[in-house]
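User: ok so my PI wants both of these folded by tonight, can you help

Assistant: No problem, let's get them done. Here's the first:
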Amino acid sequence: MARYKWEYLGQGLYQFTEIGVRTFVFRRRNLRQLLEEFGKSSHWVGSLIREFNKAFPYETCRFKKEKVLESYSLGELVAYLRERGYAVYAPLPFRDEDIVGHLGKFGFKVSRPLADDFK
């Protein structure tokens, strides 16, 4: 039977229980300080922190990709991909031939696509 129990309570709060001895609620940042207050050895504190980190590991990514991507405008992301050789375009809800016909009404001359990527 396990002597220690870890639980995630939500909103960054965890609960530590030493079965039959003590229970306390903490945040990740103050776990070491709370464990040291029990007057146990640094080896005991370190081993409990390792157990906690196994049960609730840190995120492996230092930042959230979505948050970083949202910090750029769509135009900046499109320009970046085009510089890297990608063909980036926003598909429209009608055929390319309809666009060609519409532009022809205003005097534009449109030839075939420059690359097969736009089909």
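One down. Here's the second:
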Amino acid sequence: MKHAFYLFWVFCLGCCCTHAEIVVYFSPSGGATDAIVREIHSAKNEVLVEAYSFTSKPIVEALVEANQRGVHVEAILDKSNERDKRSGMWRLVSAGVPILVDWKPNIAHNKVMIIDHSVLITGSFNFSTAAEKRNAENLLVIHDDPTLVASYLANYEKRKKLSDVFHPGDKPHEQEFDPEVWINNVLWLLGGAVLGFVLRSFLSWKARGHSGSA
């Protein structure tokens, strides 16, 4: 309880004293990808990435370019990327960017970039084509909030310790069995089958009715 109280006052103090610059973007087609690419291009020392879906070619290429000009780029990705040939993970691997796989959670759903320990990018926005063009998402680009950046850095290091370094040719991590997910999938399949049966029966009945009345 005392620890929680202390953290509350640290948070309040940080909120009162910070002069953070925060810019928000909304998708689809709200400029989020361009904003991320601009921040990567401005990186001088380091870009740390946490991602789930990772198919945005502009973002991936900006990371490759940053790596080529000497910026330390590192990414912690969800294990689904190991099986997805569309994933930008493969492009980063070929460019020599260190990749880690956050395989222990059911889904590693973080969408975060920490740039030069001073810029934080986060939100619901996946680093993907779908997030930019088709999905309703949000993205925050936060400058000059050291307290918040420190919290995200601590979590990044925590996830990194729990992740495996990816090497080409490694066997993909297996999806852990989740009874709730399995039940939901079965119900979804059964629901689709029942709906299909009802629709086919209705169309068949309607066709017979029309042929009979003719």
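The chain has two domains: 19-165, 181-214. Strands lie at 21-27, 46-51, 72-78, 99-102, 112-115, 119-123, 137-143, 164-165. Good luck tonight!
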